[in-house]
Amino acid sequence: MYGSASQTEMSFAMVFNFALTQGKYKGSSFCLLGRNPIFTNPRELAIVGGTGAFRFSRGYAILKTYYMDMQTGASTIVEYDVYIRHY
What is the pLDDT of residues 27-37, one digit of tens each? Predict the structure, then answer.
């Protein structure tokens, strides 16, 4: 989910839920939240919790945009490096 977060640049207030479907953390999820200025490389969003193995987790994600189709906005490639502390 996202909404505009600036009147002067392309920036969104975003919340993401990432659900893991395979491996050791299958069935768990974590949540990213923050302001995402999409033309800034790199940028950072906070991990504010999760479910399953990531309950009460904290951390951050570093985002880097590698490609964005400026004509249609339909294609974007973003790398997420995620660092999570969980209990």
Answer: 999 999 999 99
Q: What is the pTM of this model?
A: 0.84
CA distances from 36 to 45, 48, 75, 83 (A): 7, 15, 17, 17
Token reading at 56: 């009460």
Sign of CA dihedral 42, 12, 15, 68: negative
Which pLDDT band, with edges at 50, 70 and 90, does 76 fall under?
Answer: confident
Per the CB < 8 A criterion, the answer to whether 43 and 54 are in contact is no
Is residue 84 within a helix (H) or strand (E), and if so which, with residue range?
strand 76-85
CA distances from 13 to 10, 29, 44 (A): 11, 20, 12
